[in-house]
Amino acid sequence: MPHTATAPHTATALHTAAALLVVGSLLVTFRDGVEERPVALAFGVLVAVGELTLPRCRSRSHGVTPASGPGLREAAPLGAAGSLSYALLGEHAGQATHHGLAQVVSVVAAASLLGNVPRIARGEGPVLDHLVRRVLAVGFAAVCFQPLYNNGAFETWSGPAYALLLLALLVLTALCDALVAAVLARSRTGWPFAPLLRDELRGLPGIGTAVCATGAVMALAVAVVGLWALPMFCVPLLLTQLSLRRYAAVRATYRQTIASLARATEIAGYTPPGHARRVAALSLAVGRDLGFTEPELTVLEYAALMHDIGQLSLVDPVPAGATAGLPPAEQRRIALLGGAVVRRTGANAQVATVVERQADPYPEQPPAARIVRAVNAYEEKVRDAGPGGPLSALEELRLGTGGEYAPEVVEALARVLSKDCLTLPAPG
Description:
By secondary structure, the protein is mainly alpha-helical. 69% of the residues lie in helices and 1% in strands.
């Protein structure tokens, strides 16, 4: 998918809209004062605590930061649920509230910013995009609910019907938030929009369902019993959020372990320094261009990092680790040896399959194996081709698309290199 200015312009419009919404809300709140201050303070603290317990943002081992990870699209479920609950709050302990749209946005924006101060200080992750998402989602929910509620539009709604109304508003808000998240990720990374949106939507049935349900339940419970309902219903999400932190740490550690294992061929002198890291970075860019989902990209990344691990079983190293020029039978033997090593590491069986089949004829290969094969050959060819390396290496790959390399992968590689949307480590 060609890189255009559409996504950056759309992202700028979203940032501007969020900024105007916050500034306007703050001005109105300062003018009119804060209604129901204990309620505002309680929800503000809840949102801030949710943001403070966010998992630390880590980059991929080779320097490419993912837009989001599987299952971690809403890494602050407590903050999200608290924000949306406040946006849909119409009563407190049986008494009607009067905080309105402006106060909702002001409290959530201030609490979210306060909770993200440590991340800003550490320079972690796309904090601005996260805050824009939070403000726009809460603003959307509050716009749909607060004016209508204050005008008495929901007076005839009661019991299950009212609860279903809140859930419907939250589901609609979650869908809009997924769209905003995909647009912001597209602008930040230059990756294709459709796979990003698909990944965001796939994450909704999991943690998104819990956030929507908890947000609705907290709003209903506070309306009946007051602020004592908040700790009762936020504890499960807080525990979930702490579990997400541990899960993120485990994933980061596992990725680092895979990257360290991949460096074994470099340390042993079988492959040039940084070769596995460069192949992994470029393979991920090609996978993004071809529309791979996040789970598929994870398999692709691990397989690309360990694609040469089979060389450790050789008695005589391949000169410069260049396996692309070996006879097909020898390439397959090294690939099978690598797959056997990967299986012993306990990695995903799909990763081992990709490593094993990277030397097969491309029509028989899984898509990830086609990418690893072509990118590895490109990296080896460009390393030895001199000043005209990239162009001559691509031309050689194109000439080999009749039987060695998948044409769609070679063309995707050419698009990625021409867009220059990814900064790759320098060879050598």
